[in-house]
Specification:
The protein is α/β, with parallel strands linked by helices and 363 residues long. The chain is built from 10 helices and 14 strands. It folds into 2 domains: 262 residues, Metallo-dependent phosphatases (Purple Acid Phosphatase, chain A, domain 2, 4-Layer Sandwich), CATH 3.60.21; 66 residues, no CATH class. A 6-stranded mixed beta sheet has the order 3-2-1-12-13-14, with no helix packed on it. The protein has a 6-stranded mixed beta sheet with strand order 4-5-8-9-11-10, with no helix packed on it. A hairpin with a 7-residue loop joins strand 12 and strand 13. Helix 4 packs parallel to helix 5.
Amino acid sequence: MNFRFSIISDPHVAVPHTLPDHTKRFHLVEVSILALEKVLSHLEQLNLDFLLLPGDLTQDGEVDNHDWLGKRLRSLPFPVFVVPGNHDVPSVNPTKAKIGLHQFPSYYGHCGYSSQQLYYTQEILPGVRIIGLNSNEFNEEGKQLGCLDEQQLTWLENLLPQVKDQLLLVMIHHNVIEHLPDQSHHELGKRYMLDNAPLLLKMLNSANCKLIFTGHLHVQDVAYHQGMYEITTGSLVSYPHPYRVIEVKRPFDGSLSLNITSHRVKSVPGWDNLEEISRLWLGERSFPFMVKLLTASPLGISLEEAEKLAPYLRYFWSDVAAGDAIFDFPNFPGEIRDYFQRFSAIKADGTVAKIDNQAILNL
């Protein structure tokens, strides 16, 4: 059986009156609807079987943004499946302008949800099953966490033995497999990881799951761990404004291959050179972030030294976000140079593995 689907992640939809006015943000929310409309126009020509959106559908959970997007997705000629991101449900309880956690499914009843439950499963094609998970939880103080609650874990534990013979497509906002060096332990990277990722991986491995689709990190990256691929897709409102089209082929011999093609939104009305603008946008805001990265563990260098090196890293994060980058900073001290080389698209054996954007994965 062959089929084709697309992924758009972290579109951060913001209708005009909800646009944030702070200038330190890393993403260009101003182009959210323009970019999304351009992508949807392309996808409507491709005879897709379905579309995945792994979270951060809206800028900050605004009622008007969820309302706009829910209606827009309903008008598409193919099925759409979504899960909530941290921006979509910023608090447990609703406010006048923003939805609460448990209201999310009511806006996307046509996108996988059949009840007010925040997670779902559906056989979308014969032998192909989507599992949409909610990775947003709140502690007693109301702080937002990235984890699966006990009720959802119990539901998943009961479900997986019943569907393990199908091709499982698991979609969740937070990263389950590391996409950056030591991400689950780094003070800047771990907030993008699912807190109970090891438990989820163990459960999925027992069900022979091979594919996880995530967002949140705003980077193009394909990670591999113990037989599973996690495909995270960059944000539509951040450089390089990517989206993916994936063709799945299953020949008669029972093997399975994924042909991943990534596209970029290079311009939208009023932003003829969007790629250049957004790369500069990230570069101009990179200095404080790079200083934090340099002074944090494991490097832990002095603030004075970090401020000297940070300008050389002006476009480091934009290159990470684009995927498939090879890094070398020969003028850096040995330990620091080695650390940044670890972000390169190179396997443990030293060979180049550029699979973040265009790839054929054999499962």
